[in-house]
Amino acid sequence: MTPISGMSNFNQKLFGVMDRIEYRRIVSAEDFEDLSALRTKAYRRANMHVPSNGGLFIDEIDFDPQAYVFGIYCDEQLISSIRIHHVTPDHRVSPARNLFPEEVDRFLDSGMTLIDPVRQASDPDLFDDLPALPYLTLRVAILAIEYFKADRCLSFVPPRHVAFYKRVFGSKLVAGPLRNCKGYGIDFSLLAADIASELPRVYRRYPFFRSQPFERRMMFGPAEEQNQIPLTVIPTARYMLAA
């Protein structure tokens, strides 16, 4: 890794890890099995509900046409995952809306489009070695925001994580906490970030969130336009700095 002049130690370290990162759309049965195992491990460690019958930890809406499931790989090892929902007034499939219907519909009824990043799961055994995991995972949501030109990015998170989303993304508390949410077994609060006003600040403070347009197209573009879904996508934030 080549050091980047004038950059904080935190950003330097994260760029160093990013040089080993690949993103992959989860589409094959084998990848979904690995994803299920990761979700089960992460959610069990967080005292959240997991399937009790030993079945796969896969949701029906993992296969929604406006849902995008990604694995984040470091040195070819699956280390975290996230599912992105592109929520529009005409397509209101959103886990955040399931918990906070009035609040989410208020955005949609005003004509806004939303990004709802959910089912975040990171390998808890790697937190000490890779403290950048939350940033590397949530970077996928930033790419989705840019690609779909969304108006807001939602976050429904445990109350203990609210301060992180306010600090990093400038998110505002919309509702909650909602106690013992069905299907999760823990409390959640709903936040929303005003993308147009917050992204410039986010990019200045966290330049590893930046990306080139072709990276975003590879992540979220229709498969028929690309002949097939790319096997892996390499982050382009470092190239943005060079440019």
TrEMBL record:
Q: What is the lineage of its organism?
A: Bacteria, Pseudomonadati, Pseudomonadota, Alphaproteobacteria, Hyphomicrobiales
**Organism listed in the record:** Hoeflea prorocentri
What InterPro entries does UniProt report for this protein, alphabetically? Acyl_CoA_acyltransferase (IPR016181), FeeM_cat (IPR054597)
Q: What is this protein called?
A: N-acyl amino acid synthase FeeM catalytic core domain-containing protein
Show where the N-acyl amino acid synthase FeeM catalytic core domain sits.
Answer: 35-194
Q: What superkingdom does the record give?
A: Bacteria
Cite a single Pfam family from the UniProt record.
FeeM
